[in-house]
Design a protein that fits this description.
single chain, 60 residues, alpha+beta, two-stranded antiparallel sheet, 2 strands
Length: 60
């Protein structure tokens, strides 16, 4: 009923000349579930994890 879920996370860092380094985080998900699809929950969780990790790194 809730099988076949998949998620991906693409991280890209980029910089233009001397400007600050930027990070782009893009999530994607898919499901073959019959009754309940949880794509957006997993995608949001991925982004929250990236945000938490970056905040932790920047605090150091």
């Amino acid at each position: 009923m809730m099988g076949g879920n998949r998620l991906s996370l693409t991280l890209t860092m980029f910089q233009n000349a001397d400007s600050p380094i930027r990070l782009s985080a893009i999530t994607a998900g898919g499901s073959q579930a019959v009754f309940f699809k949880v794509n957006t929950l997993g995608e949001e969780s991925f982004l929250d994890d990236v945000k938490d990790l970056l905040e932790e790194i920047l605090e150091e």
